[in-house]
Amino acid sequence: MSAPFSWIRPDPRGIFVAPANAWIDPSHPADLALVTHGHADHARGGHGQTVATPETLAIMKLRYATCAGAVPVAYGETLRLGGGVDATFVPAGHVLGSAQILLEHAGERVVITGDYKRRPDPTCAPFEVTPCDIFITEATFGLPVFTHPPIADEISKLLARLAAQPDSCVLVGAYALGKAQRIIAELRTAGHADTIWLHGAMEAMCHLYEEHGVPLGDLRLVSDAPSKDALRGAIVIAPPSALNDRWSRRLPDPVTAMASGWMRVRGRARQRGVELPLVISDHADWGELTRTIEEVNPAETWITHGREEALLRWHELTQRRARALALVGREEEDD
Asked: Which positions fall inside the Metallo-beta-lactamase domain (predicted)?
């Protein structure tokens, strides 16, 4: 008889599921890849078969031209992989189409979360707690100092600054997949029905979200603005790299904002020249990480993608088993 959980192995290139010869979020081309979501530190092209939610596959087609070998799996649907391994995709609450992957084999249950958050988000399905034996969790914000404020408070700060400087615009740096669409949807929820202007790099992903049932309201490209004056008193959303780029010179006296969980760290805001830091994250904060582990109540937690030491220490203090993994991550998300 094989040792418990010998069928699933962490590797610097991803999680390997031996009986099925499959990989979870591999950083290299694989014959069979199960992908949790569309960010580039978890998804890539070049696989023989790519198993993911329909939304994630659409994102991968847009970003990486991944078409051949796509195998769509709906939330709650179980797929038999081979070697007696079943895979079920469960909402992760991170971005559109993001999923945890529940693997079941020989009576053992493993959940790979990918990235996740616990806060409500009008642009994606909410996280679902899934009991298991081994829980593989991210730890991007795995330090007690990281406590994300309510997003409504951050949106209120943004709108207040806009009202206080009507002759300027507020230029918000936000990641093109997930963060930008969430900010737009939250602005609509807060009653901001005006045109929101976009950098050209945002257009295709916003269209994809709308095609998948996420309404975003009146969006226009900055390049289509009839004049600089048309952008006064407006919100403009652009990739973080564009905040201090030549592109931003076409904007009327922009107030530079940045939407990221890292804006909790004042030094990061100063370093990037951000006037209006907005603490908005698509990852779980410290309290949500520890609460999730308590709710899932696994026999053992595997920790990856972030601040492993503090979360390991928390497990020790609460008499829980845990280990840190060393997976390759490109840290693409400017969260």
From this structure: 11-175
Q: Are 216 and 66 in contact (CB under 8 A)?
A: no
pLDDT in tens, 117-138: 999 999 999 999 999 999 999 9
Q: Which domains does the chain have, with CATH numbers?
A: 8-145+283-324 (3.60.15.10), 151-278 (3.40.50)
pLDDT above 50 for 141: yes
- Here the tokens at position 195 are 């045109």
Q: What is the pTM of this model?
A: 0.94
Rounded to 5 degrees, what are φ and ψ at 164?
Answer: -75, -25
Note every long-range contact of 194-198, with CB atoms under 8 Å and residues 24 or more positions apart, other chains counting. 194/218, 194/234, 194/235, 195/219, 195/220, 195/234, 196/220, 196/234, 196/235, 196/236, 196/237, 197/169, 197/221, 197/222, 197/225, 197/231, 197/234, 197/235, 197/236, 197/237, 198/222, 198/236, 198/237, 198/238
272: number of Cβ within 10 Å: 18
